[in-house]
Amino acid sequence: MSSTASNDGLFPRGPLLLENLVTPYCEKLGLYKLPRHIHVIILSALFYQLINLLSPWISNQFSRHYKQLSRRSKLNWDSHVVSSVQSVLLISLGYPILREVNRFSDKLFGYSVYAGDIYALADGYFLWDLYITIRYLNVTGFGFVVHAVAALFVVTFSYSPYLMYYGPTYLSWELSTPFLNIHYFLDKTNKTGSKLQIFNGVLLILTFICVRIVWGWYSAYSTSMEIIRRVTEIPRGLSLFYLAANMSLNCLNLFWVFKMMDAIRRRAHGEKVSPVQTANSEVAKKNL
């Protein structure tokens, strides 16, 4: 059912022993292409955890404010550091993955090893994110556990394979993440309301609107039309889930951008308000 664009992966193939170990379980879930990428998912999750563990030492070297933060704020700070690394990594792979999926002959079931490896980096991040939200449930809240589960589910089930062609749309959302994180760091380093933060806020809004609203809604429409056109070829439950998740994420983006615009407007008038916090700043580390 899938069409293959490339047999060359971004990373070397993992141990066949590991692939053989997980294959029976993946096949029961219909994730037929997942075993080939399981090592990348595991290693990327461990990589993000390493960044999280190194963040206190690195942050203390570059900012005198870190040691003054509360435990809750330090946990959020460290998560934003991981988010920054993840977003820059995926942004740097934006053009290669876009070029790769454009070679697919099937928009619904197209697959390549190269694309699968890139999505595995995102999958590893969401796996790490789920671990963090569960471990610090009293800090993150149950809502973000649900968010992490949903994000992990959406990326993982692309290994059916399903909708890998549309993956670059959601990866492009990471273009707004560095600006969100910069806003957070400026807030925590006593630069709230500074010219730098206002300028960054303008770039944040412009980027957010372009990649998450304009491009996001157009892609949501294109994805929905393709699913509806070929709805008889895929399980109805899976189709409904993706359509609902797609619409929910895009509606949330619309809600967040209005919140951020309002907060930046208020800040420009001298009010002490954080646009990142007002717009639910945790989206900066929990992007899809």
UniProtKB/TrEMBL annotation:
<dbReference type="Pfam" id="PF03798">
    <property type="entry name" value="TRAM_LAG1_CLN8"/>
</dbReference>
<dbReference type="GO" id="GO:0055088">
    <property type="term" value="P:lipid homeostasis"/>
</dbReference>
<dbReference type="GO" id="GO:0016020">
    <property type="term" value="C:membrane"/>
</dbReference>
<dbReference type="InterPro" id="IPR006634">
    <property type="entry name" value="TLC-dom"/>
</dbReference>
<feature type="transmembrane region" description="Helical">
    <location>
        <begin position="165"/>
        <end position="186"/>
    </location>
</feature>
<protein>
    <submittedName>
        <fullName>TLC domain-containing protein Tlc4</fullName>
    </submittedName>
</protein>
<feature type="domain" description="TLC">
    <location>
        <begin position="72"/>
        <end position="269"/>
    </location>
</feature>
<feature type="transmembrane region" description="Helical">
    <location>
        <begin position="198"/>
        <end position="218"/>
    </location>
</feature>
<keyword id="KW-0812">Transmembrane</keyword>
<feature type="transmembrane region" description="Helical">
    <location>
        <begin position="109"/>
        <end position="128"/>
    </location>
</feature>
<keyword id="KW-0472">Membrane</keyword>
<dbReference type="InterPro" id="IPR050846">
    <property type="entry name" value="TLCD"/>
</dbReference>
<feature type="transmembrane region" description="Helical">
    <location>
        <begin position="140"/>
        <end position="159"/>
    </location>
</feature>
<feature type="transmembrane region" description="Helical">
    <location>
        <begin position="238"/>
        <end position="258"/>
    </location>
</feature>
<keyword id="KW-1133">Transmembrane helix</keyword>
<dbReference type="GO" id="GO:0005783">
    <property type="term" value="C:endoplasmic reticulum"/>
</dbReference>
<feature type="transmembrane region" description="Helical">
    <location>
        <begin position="79"/>
        <end position="97"/>
    </location>
</feature>
<feature type="transmembrane region" description="Helical">
    <location>
        <begin position="38"/>
        <end position="58"/>
    </location>
</feature>
